[in-house]
Amino acid sequence: MTDPLILSLSIDPDVAVAIRRIGPCRLRGDDGQEPYDALLRAIAGQQLHGAAARQIFGRLCLLGPAASETGPPPAPEVLLAFPEDTLRACGLSASKQIAMRGVAQARLEGLVPTRLEAETLGDEDLIQRLVTLRGVGRWTVEMLLMFTLGRPDVMPVDDFGVREGWRRIKKMETAPKPKNLRSETLCFSPHRSALAWYCWRVAEEGKKAALNTLTG
């Protein structure tokens, strides 16, 4: 039986060609983390390459309850109690420390939901709620939606890789503007997360680069 997701995406012949070339979608939509953990990981990795980001977040997680580089990170009340020097030793800049403390305080106040609470909120509701936090933009929340909460219909139109992949799929001279990409991909709802995954894969074709652990 043909995968209904593949059938849905293959309504576009150009996308169908990319799917045949790349193969089945291997999007991992649930990393098992709490939203709080995922936001800290995202802040730790801002403006850094994958290996450096993982190293810094791993040092933070060593301060957590499991004392393991794989997590979880320190609980909000514990993180808030750490002196600046402790967090700086993890490789966190002053701005990242401020952003992480803001996320920790927001978790204590209930603004950052648990996974269970997040299940009751729509994608856009979560985006509008979390972008109020320092250091947390729309793209960051979209990655949380896709890779932590497993939401199937997210199209991160501001992502350079997604835009570049769509340009290549459609054989465009230049990458589409975010608003155009959003309108052009509406017809793929409710499977736009998978479409974004294929865009990433197409954008990476021919490049010798380390696997992006976030986008799979």
CATH C-level of the largest domain: Mainly Alpha
Major sheet attributes: none
**Mean pLDDT score:** 93
- Helix segment count? 13
Extract low-pLDDT stretches: none
Q: What is the H-and-E element order?
A: HHHHHHHHHHHHH
The tally of domains stands at 2
For the termini, the CA-CA separation is 25 Å
Name the beta content range.
under 5%
DSSP summary, beta strand count? 0
Radius of gyration, in Å, reads 18 Å
**Overall SS class:** mainly alpha
| CATH superfamily caption of the largest domain | Hypothetical protein, domain 2
CATH topology of the largest domain: Endonuclease III, domain 1
Percent helix: 55-70%
**Gross CATH architecture of the largest domain:** Orthogonal Bundle
Shape: elongated
Enzyme class: hydrolase
Family: Belongs to the alkylbase DNA glycosidase AlkA family.
Keywords: DNA damage, DNA repair
EC number: 3.2.2.21
Topology overview:
Elements: H1 4-9, H2 13-22, H3 35-44, H4 50-61, H5 76-81, H6 84-89, H7 94-109, H8 115-118, H9 123-130, H10 138-147, H11 160-169, H12 178-185, H13 192-204
Any overview of this molecule?
The protein has 13 helices and no strands. It is mainly alpha-helical. The protein has two domains: 75 residues, Endonuclease Iii, domain 2 (Orthogonal Bundle), CATH 1.10.1670.40; 113 residues, Hypothetical protein, domain 2 (Endonuclease III, domain 1), CATH 1.10.340.30. Helix 3 runs antiparallel to helix 7 and helix 11 crosses helix 13. The protein is elongated. The two termini are 25 Å apart.
